[in-house]
C-alpha cells in the first residue's frame, strides 16, 4: 500500500518589543538570570496584567501579512498546567477566540506554487527556562530563569496541508521571510525567536480521512525540521506496514542520533482547563485600526519575487533566492541601480558572494563587499579590463581586504592584455611549440582549439582575452 504524508506545523514566533507582554520588564536577550523580572511576570498574587499595545499591533501586522482575518473581538484565556518554569501555574494564551483566523501562505517548490492554509494566529506569553545543574557542575540541582517569562509570542498554526518534509521546510522558510520583511520578529532560531512543532500522520493514498498523528516538539532549525519529519515518516511507514497502529503521542527529536523518541502519550496529555482570563478585558479591534496597520505592511517576499522576475527579467529561481531575505533583496537592488545587467549581478550574488558568506555563517548585512564595490568589479569585467577568471581572484581578495577592485588589479598587475602585438607574439609562440596539434586541428579535430587557447591563457597568466585569442588562433591556423 502507498501512503500519503500529511503535516501541519505550529510555529512560535517571538515578536519584537522592548518590553514584555503584560509588564514593563525588558525583553533583552542574554541578561543575567532573573534580571528582567517584576511581580507581574513572576506571577505574584494580586498583580494585574496589562496588554502591550505594540505587541498587539505587530501581531495584527503578522496576521494581515499572512492573509488572516483580524477578529473584531478576541480574548485571552488561561491554559492551566504545573511546571517549575511557569510561576502562575497557568499560561496566558488565546484559545476559542484567537486574534487571526483563516489565512494562507504560498510556498514555492521546484517551480510550482502551492497555497498552505493557516488555521489561526494567536497571542500568548512565553514561559521561563530551566537550567539543569549537570551543565553547571552541580548535578542533581536545577535552576530557573524567568527572564523569558512573559516575552510576547505569536503562535502560527497551519492547516494539515503540507505533504512532504521539503514542503514543511519551504513553508517555514516562507513564513520566516514574511515575518522578517514585516519586521515583527528577528526570527533568530538560535536564540529561540522561532520554534516549530510538527504534526505528522500518514494515510492510504486516496483516503480522505486523516490518519493518527504524532507531534514533534521544539524543532529549532530548518535542517532539523526536515530531518525529524523524514525520520518520523519512515518510522510511521514501518509501523503501518507491520500491520500495527500509530499511537497518538508527543515525540522529541534527538539530532545527534537522527531519531525521534516518545515523550508522552495521549493518555498522559494535559487537560488544560482553558477559561477566559478574568484579569484581562476582551481585545476589541475596529476596522479603522486594522486598515491603519495594513498601511504599514511593506512589499512582501511573494510580491517582490514576482517583481524581480518581471522588472529585472530574472529566472524564477534567482528571484526566489534573492528575495528570500529582505536585506539580500536590498543588496541586489542597490547593485541593480548601479549596473544594468541584473542577471550578471544575480550570478555573482548567488554564486561567489553567498558561498563566501555561508562559509563564515555571515549575514548579507555583515558582507565585507559593498554593493558599490561589487558593481565596480563587474564593470571591470564588462569593460574588458579583466577577464571573468581573474575577477574571481580579485573577488576573493576584496572579500579578505575590503580593497577596491581597481586597486587590487593595479597592485597585482592583473589587467587584461589588450596590446595586440603582445597577444600576437604569444599565439605565435604557442603555435610553433605545438605543430603536431595544429596538424590535428587542420585534419578536423576541433577539440584541439580549446587546448591551444588554454596554452595561450597560461602563457599570459590568465590576462589575455580568451575571445580574442580564440579568434587569432583560428585566423593564423587557416593560413598555415
Ligand atoms: P493541538 O493544539 O492539540 O496540537 P490542533 O488541532 O490545534 O491540536 O492541531 C495542531 C496542528 O496539527 C495543526 O497544525 C494541524 O494542522 C495539525 N494536524 C491536526 N491533525 C493532523 C493529522 N491527522 N495529521 C497531521 N497534522 C495534523
Ligand atoms: Mg500541538
Ligand atoms: Zn515583569
Explain how this protein is built.
The structure is a single chain. With 480 residues, the chain is an alpha+beta fold. The protein folds into 2 domains: 3-292, no CATH class; 420-478, Arc Repressor Mutant, subunit A (Orthogonal Bundle). Helix content is 39%, strand content 20%. The protein contains 15 helices and 16 strands. The protein has a 9-stranded mixed sheet with strand order 2-6-7-10-1-11-12-13-14. The chain has a 3-stranded antiparallel sheet with strand order 5-4-15, with no helix packed on it. Strand 12 (214-219), helix 3 and strand 13 form a beta-alpha-beta unit. Helix 5 (301-311) packs across helix 6, helix 12 (420-433) packs across helix 14 and helix 14 (448-459) crosses helix 15. The longest helix is centred in the middle third of the chain and has 20 residues, at 222-241. It is elongated and about 95 Å long. The N and C termini lie far apart (70 Å). The model has no long low-confidence stretch (mean pLDDT 93). The site of magnesium ion has 3 residues, from loops.
Q: Report the C-alpha radius of gyration, rounded.
A: 30 Å
Find the structural class using helix and strand composition: alpha+beta
Q: How much of the sequence is in beta strands?
A: 15-25%
Give me the number of helical elements.
15
The stretches of 5 or more residues where confidence is low (pLDDT under 50) are: none
The whole-number mean of residue pLDDT values reads 93
Number-wise, the strands total 16
Ligands: adenosine-5'-diphosphate, magnesium ion, zinc ion
Instruction: State the domain count.
Output: 2
Distance between the termini: 70 Å
Amino acid at each position: 500500500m502507498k501512503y500519503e504524508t500529511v503535516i501541519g506545523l505550529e510555529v512560535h514566533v517571538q515578536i519584537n518589543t522592548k518590553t514584555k507582554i503584560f509588564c514593563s520588564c525588558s525583553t533583552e536577550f542574554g541578561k543575567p538570570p532573573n534580571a528582567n523580572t517584576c511581580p507581574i511576570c513572576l506571577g505574584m498574587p494580586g498583580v494585574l496584567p496589562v496588554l502591550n499595545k505594540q505587541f498587539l499591533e505587530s501581531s495584527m501586522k503578522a496576521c494581515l501579512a499572512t492573509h488572516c482575518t483580524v477578529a473584531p473581538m478576541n480574548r485571552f484565556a488561561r491554559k492551566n498546567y504545573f511546571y517549575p518554569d511557569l510561576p502562575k501555574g497557568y499560561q496566558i494564551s488565546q484559545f476559542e477566540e484567537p486574534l487571526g483566523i483563516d489565512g494562507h501562505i504560498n510556498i514555492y517548490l521546484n517551480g510550482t506554487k502551492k497555497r498552505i492554509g493557516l488555521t489561526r494566529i494567536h497571542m500568548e506569553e512565553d514561559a521561563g527556562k530551566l537550567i539543569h545543574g549537570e551543565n553547571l557542575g552541580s548535578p542533581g540541582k536545577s535552576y530557573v530563569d524567568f527572564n523569558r517569562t512573559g516575552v510576547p509570542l505569536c503562535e502560527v498554526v497551519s492547516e494539515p496541508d503540507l505533504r512532504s518534509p521539503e514542503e514543511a521546510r519551504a513553508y517555514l522558510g516562507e513564513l520566516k521571510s514574511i515575518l522578517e520583511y514585516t519586521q515583527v520578529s528577528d526570527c533568530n532560531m538560535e536564540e529561540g525567536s522561532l520554534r516549530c512543532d510538527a504534526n505528522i500522520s500518514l494515510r492510504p493514498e486516496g483516503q480522505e480521512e486523516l490518519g493518527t498523528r504524532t507531534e514533534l516538539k521544539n524543532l529549532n532549525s530548518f535542517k532539523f525540521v526536515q530531518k525529524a519529519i523524514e525520520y518520523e515518516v519512515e518510522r510511521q511507514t514501518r509501523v503501518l506496514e507491520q500491520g500495527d497502529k500509530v499511537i497518538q503521542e508527543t515525540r522529541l527529536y534527538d539530532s545527534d542520533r537522527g531519531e525521534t523518541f516518545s515523550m508522552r502519550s495521549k493518555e498522559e496529555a494535559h487537560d488544560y482547563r482553558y477559561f477566559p482570563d478574568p484579569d484581562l478585558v476582551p481585545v476589541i479591534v475596529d476596522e479603522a485600526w486594522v486598515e491603519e496597520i495594513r498601511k504599514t505592511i511593506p512589499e512582501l517576499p511573494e510580491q517582490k519575487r514576482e517583481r524581480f522576475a518581471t522588472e529585472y527579467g530574472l529566472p524564477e529561481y534567482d528571484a526566489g533566492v534573492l528575495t528570500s531575505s529582505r536585506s539580500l533583496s536590498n543588496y541586489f537592488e542597490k547593485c541593480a541601480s548601479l549596473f544594468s545587467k541584473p542577471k550578471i549581478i544575480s550570478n555573482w550574488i548567488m554564486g561567489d558572494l553567498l558561498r563566501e558568506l555561508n562559509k563564515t555563517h555571515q549575514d548579507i548585512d555583515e558582507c565585507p563587499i559593498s554593493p558599490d564595490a561589487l558593481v565596480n568589479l563587474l564593470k571591470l569585467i564588462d569593460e574588458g579590463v579583466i577577464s571573468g577568471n581573474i575577477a574571481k581572484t580579485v573577488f576573493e581578495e576584496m572579500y579578505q581586504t575590503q580593497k577596491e577592485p581597481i586597486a587590487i588589479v593595479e597592485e597585482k598587475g592583473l589587467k587584461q592584455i589588450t596590446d595586440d602585438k603582445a597577444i600576437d607574439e604569444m599565439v605565435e609562440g604557442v603555435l610553433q611549440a605545438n605543430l603536431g596539434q595544429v596538424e590535428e586541428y587542420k585534419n578536423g579535430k576541433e577539440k584541439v582549439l580549446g587546448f591551444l587557447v588554454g596554452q595561450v591563457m597560461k602563457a599570459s597568466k590568465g590576462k589575455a582575452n580568451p575571445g580574442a585569442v580564440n579568434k587569432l588562433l583560428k585566423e593564423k591556423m587557416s593560413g598555415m
